[in-house]
Write a structure and sequence with these properties.
- The chain has seven helices and seven strands; from the N terminus they run E-H-H-E-E-H-H-E-H-E-H-E-E-H.
- By secondary structure, it is an alpha+beta fold.
- The radius of gyration is 16 Å and the shape is globular.
Length: 181
Amino acid sequence: MTTTVQAVTRKQIDAEIRSALSAIYLAAYGDPSLPESQLDADNFVSSTIPRHSRRAGFRLMLATTDGTASGYAYGFTGKRGQFWSDWLSGAAPADIVEAWVGDHFELVDIVVDPAHRGQGIAGLLHDHLVEGLPQQKALLATTPDDGAAARLYGGRGWQVLVPGIDGDKALYGLDLAARTA
């Protein structure tokens, strides 16, 4: 199997890319037999991605395995005045907010089609996404268990900054400046 990862700019997000993102989203998060799952996938590509793609520092990576879209990852520059950054400012300890929140890279999602999991695609997407970022810090939230996501992030230098930030999720941070030093 051959997997390639390509960067996709806002202007390159056409009907074919939206269809690929929707299919991956639906396979990973939904039940294709339920109409609300398809509505969620449609909303993701028709509302969420266009809104997020207009943010500064937007990056989208699309993985293709043997000619089939197999995963995506994206994020953007997180700033005060955006929902998640402002929410973190009220939910995280002040010292974490001061050191980490604002002008950080917000890793929103890494999603791999379940049919392609276990092949290292999430790691490829992650590495392409964070490579050469101009920000000094990166943030994300995920479950801090011994699952695949926590192993992926922990193995790439992410640290738990705040456990239990959002129910069973933890706030993770990656010091990008230390990676390039």
